[in-house]
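Below sits my pick:
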Amino acid sequence: MSRAPATKQSHKATQPGSKKLTPEQRFVFDTVNMAVALPQSDPQDRLRVLATAANVISPIDQKVAKTLWHEGVRIESELIQVGKTPAVSLMASGQADCEAAQSFVENLSEDSVVAAEQSLIGAVTSCKKQTLDLVARKLDAALQKKIVASRALMATMEAEGTKSAWSQTHFEEMFHSLPDPRENASEAENFAAMYARMSGEVARDGAKNAGLELLDWLGKLDDTGLRTLGIGITVGAMKQALGEKDFQDALSSDVVAGSTVRNGQNGAPGQIERPPLESVSVLEAMKDNGSDHTDQLRDLPASERAREAAAHGFAAGTSGDKQQAKKYFDMAFAAVDEVWDARSPEQNTAAVVEEVSEAAAEVDSVNALARAQALRDPSAQAIAMLAVARVVAGSGIAR
């Protein structure tokens, strides 16, 4: 089993530049420093903290932000090297400077291009001059091993120019090198979208051959919503690129592709499973303001309880009822501890921490910071503190 990369963290407070800071800027600066000084044992959490901290501190001190960017890019690279997709990407958000982006791509193995996909897209988008040729070579080497990073390939084709020789050649090569369908079924929609984007930009023979290879591949998937969706997108794009007659002629020349289309069109439309979303309305909380809902909230699952309590706390606090707001935020932050303790990789637990902390900061940012610092886990503390700092940076210090 591969070990997660270790993180090297600096706990030394950073001093601001020579310019005088406003009280709000000083609050943000000090809060960011305290947050990044906290230890995060999970490199994914450390990366989240660095990405948010760099974004918040950047308007105040670019030098500090650059230091955080460099540490974040290093951790992002280490995660990818051990086969993990980063939870957030400094590269994808354009926060990393081009020197760091170039170094990142140079040190990337072609075996890791799928895990690094969002990072590569950010590199060619933000630092085209420094990274485009490097990214193109990495993706080319990956294709030789039947490793297909479809979204990164599409971004590179857009940067190269869809009519360029590289894009034309690699469009066909991609569909000739599609990976094992049973292990990569989740990519069906991406492959089909890639085909739809480029099929009208390439020669008709190229569009026909790539479309048939994609339909052959889709035909090997289990009968799921993704398979049906992929077939629908591909068929529509092929008809547009080839015309109805040539499309039918193409299907007649490939028994597997023809069967895939017939079965895909005869079956019922597939449904793609999406995780249920928790719905929390601040407007509803504002309407119900004035009543105590804490007893009702106690029966909710922890994440929903945290969000609902925070919404009611915001409604009470901005209406001037600080005592009632305190009760709601006591419940919300206690629920945050529960959510964090029970979190799994599939859950975006950081979003719950941020939502609750931001609501509290809108009411009383100093109190919200104290609440954030009182959370049980250092990673949750740091994420919550940075959420408070982000509110103060945009709205000022609330009391």
